[in-house]
Amino acid sequence: MSTLTEAPPPLAPEAPEPKPPKRRGRLTPYWLLLPGILWLLVFFALPMIYQASTSVQTGSLEEGYKVTWHFATYWDALSAYWPQFVRSVLYAGTATILCLLLGYPLAYLIAFRAGRWRNLILILVIAPFFTSFLIRTLAWKTILADGGPLVGALDTLHVLDVTNWLGWTAGDRVLATPLAVVCGLTYNFLPFMILPLYTSLERIDGRLHEAAGDLYAKPSTTFRKVTFPLSMPGVVSGTLLTFIPAAGDYVNADLLGSTDTRMVGNVIQTQFLRVLDYPTAAALSFILMAAILLMVTLYIRRSGTEDLV
Amino acid sequence: MTTKTTRTTKADPTGDVRLTGIAKTYGAFTAVHPLDLTVPQGSFFALLGASGCGKTTTLRMIAGLEEPSSGTVSLGDQDVTALPPYKRPVNTVFQSYALFPHLDIFENVAFGLRRRGLKSVKKQVEEMLELVQLGEQARKKPHQLSGGQQQRVAVARALINHPKVLLLDEPLGALDLKLRRQMQLELKRIQTEVGITFIHVTHDQEEAMTMADTVAVMNAGRVEQLGAPTDLYENPRTTFVANFLGTSNFIEAEVDSKSGDEIVLKAGGGKLVLPGARCSAPASTGGRVLAGVRPEKISLTHADDAGEIPVGRNRITGRIADSSFIGVSTQYVVDSPVCSDFEVYAQNIDRDPRLVPGAEVVLHWNPAHTFGLDASQDADAGVEEAV
Asked: What is the pLDDT of residues B44-70, one digit of tens each?
């Protein structure tokens, strides 16, 4: 200010021309991708190709298998085991819906109401993973044991009459029935539903609830018009993460079910490990994969959230 | 908006907001001390204060988003304290807007109408979007709009419901300076057009002064002073208000004598005159008061020309410590025996080249521009909180 009348200070010497950016580093993204690509190649692509070729082989264990492009295996496998396919979709679908019905309120509670208990509840959701999948499923065998307290209670309350009528249970047994398998699936895959639901609910700005309330929406309307639509990404990824592994599962049907509740996973397991009919097992795997891909595509189309998943 | 609203609401007291003894405590912390406030129908009312002063909490209690610990909220004759937000005839423009990201602009604006069961909303929504000049954007999603446009959607979404009161929570905080100025005028225009009571929460004193008819300055959960912007600026009653709204210079002085309407003060060997009507502190002879004066009321004369200063003006001597040229004016900081950093703003009409740092000067002003405050307060209160 005081130097207004003085000459302005000399200009700074002109900055040198910026050098063109070096080419180094252009390949960096590819180097970073390499481990992942190698991993996928060795543990995903190669086994897939191997399985695909197995599925079109013929022969026997003694004489060895040869690729004969015998696509009929697919048709034979499907016509022999379609009930197990239907059952897989049915059980996995029921378990997914149950997971959604059980998981949504819990995820909502953790995201909006849990306060300082939030982390503890999240840990409790994940805690079962510290124990083996098999052990946990075996535990359900005890819970649902014939004449056990739970089954006794269900019997006394006449719940079993209803489930018998629906064909989910048989007589006074829960174990070795569809209900037991669905219970096992629901239990085992519940965390895969809760976590994505929680993530998408937790991202919702709390002020949107306030804004909806401010604009005359009752709490129930706020849920229908704001919260639920905004949690759709979580609903879609949660149902996918539950349905896909549940449809291919065989442990629950194996441990909690009977021969009448066999799912396609059980058939594949038997074909591979007991019957040693590798082509049929491989063909069944591919049919299951294709069926799931088709259903998932239709589902994502329908829920209109391609850009959200 | 429709002309009907404008007509019926002008003289109608149903839009008065009355807060009676309203308070909010969180555990041991008191966010808002018991507060009585009446905002008349149709006025543009600003709650001004630094962050954490309780202004937003007060607003949220009117909206029903926060439950008061005590006291009542009334709209016109209706006590709405117990009503949940969705039953109150009040709408809010949220800070950072809170637009529904999954709905397009049209549906965002139609949200309130649909919730109240209106079936044909098209015409109203289109009219409202025209009012805020967003007709073209109706089918876009909020994230495709600029900050200023989102802000207008937020206003439209609230206004379309013809609320009795529109609450604005720092609505312009996220906008850059130029856009903010533009939106201030826009909001003022809309308010005049629709005639609805606006309660505007802001920490920006200029924003409050340009837009509002009445400003309540809040500090630490209390209303420090309430009045028209000019009244608050010219006659601050506390040092907080004096410093938060603009800048003030304070001289701690002793009351020398009182004659008629004038109080004569003694400060640093000199005498200052203070109009009795502008002294909000009890001034008894021998007592102390803070004499305040705004920087733009002061004239600066070089000590050599001291003889040319007309008689009857308050004067103080000092030395220029710093000066900065900001185009329309020059801001000086003067070190004087009564106050170490006296701020003076001089219009750049005829610049005296001798007024450079180090120069001995005389500060003088019309005594009528002096105001007196209670000397027991901190003369720097509100300086840091001011933007």
From this structure: 999 999 988 999 999 999 999 999 999
